[in-house]
Amino acid sequence: xxxxxxxxxxxxxxxxxxxxxxxxxxxxxxxxxxxxxxxxxxxxxxxxxxxxxxxxxxxxxxxxxxxxxxxxxxxxxxxxxxxxxxxxxxxxxxxxxxxxxxxxxxxxxxxxxxxxxxxxxxxxxxxxxxxxxxxxxxxxxxxxxxxxxxxxxxxxxxxxxxxxxxxxxxxxxxxxxxxxxxxxxxxxxxxxxxxxxxxxxxxxxxxxxxxxxxxxxxxxxxxxxxxxxxxxxxxxxxxxxxxxxxxxxxxxxxxxxxxxxxxxxxxxxxxxxxxxxxxxxxxxxxxxxxxxxxxxxxxxxxxxxxxxxxxxxxxxxxxxxxxxxxxxxxxxxxxxxxxxxxxxxxxxxxxx
Length: 352
Ligand code: SF4
Ligand code: SF4
Fold this sequence. Notes:
By secondary structure, this protein is mostly helical. It has one domain. It has helices at about 1-5, 10-20, 25-30, 50-65, 70-75, 80-90, 110-120, 125-140, 140-145, 150-155, 170-200, 200-210, 220-230, 250-265, 270-275, 280-285, 310, 335-340; strands at about 290-295, 345-350. The longest helix is centred in the middle third of the chain and has 31 residues, at about 170-200. Bound molecules: iron/sulfur cluster (2 copies). One iron/sulfur cluster (SF4) binds next to helix 10, helix 15 and helix 16.
């Protein structure tokens, strides 16, 4: 089934592996980081004011902003709570994963919201409309700059310079997992929604439990971190460690998975986004031909002797196999890491 829905670029990737010899040798690849563009002493401000730093700041702001309740819980500020609650009314959903139920959540992920609407037997007109408009114009920049799970992985990745890049064939196989998860979640959501519309949902809800509300939630690290974890009793010292025994085995498994999302990202950047996130795959359908995208300047790009952009790409995209004019990749999250590191300044933002 996954083959049927596999994107053409994924299929081509394996085929082209044979054609596109990795131009840089293994030695050159390991040397690649030393060729990265770095701020120099002649441009010290570049250490602070650069795209990478800007993205980190935006990611932190949204990580906190999406979960503004954290401050309200610590400081007990009614004003702050009122502010976040009123903001939540006006901000649309965004193409990220962020649970609707997180206390004082300012915005929810489009995919999370869409599943909830399906299971409650309503069609997500507004959610889909807002999601598609965003993706068609800005691509998956929300994945690269806003999604809290993307942010967690990106910061974990900063701990290690030596990343592991699976071969295109392995990468292509692993990417199919998120397609299976998407179909699983959509099937359950539509089943529950239709049963609800027919008035026969009660038995199904009993059978599916939490899966009947939003079928991706139990496997969604954002739901585990921002909804389930705050709901648990946490030990406050050694003498209260016994509280951990009150956590159910399912929550323990979910917690371990959420922690693994960060730990594995130390070696495999954005591994959850690349292989497991069904929302990311759905978003990619609409972002692939976005108005704003990435291209390469053919006068500056030297693909025969350089692969720096591919080495630094957290989504492991084989950038050089795309046409110079526009890299129509459904996996690009517009993080601009390739642009920041290209030693020839060959990566450019393309419009339309
Ligand atoms: S692909 Fe990654 S960044 Fe995008 S929604 Fe999924 S977890 Fe978030
Ligand atoms: S191609 Fe460039 S902008 Fe797109 S995900 Fe890779 S590094 Fe980020």
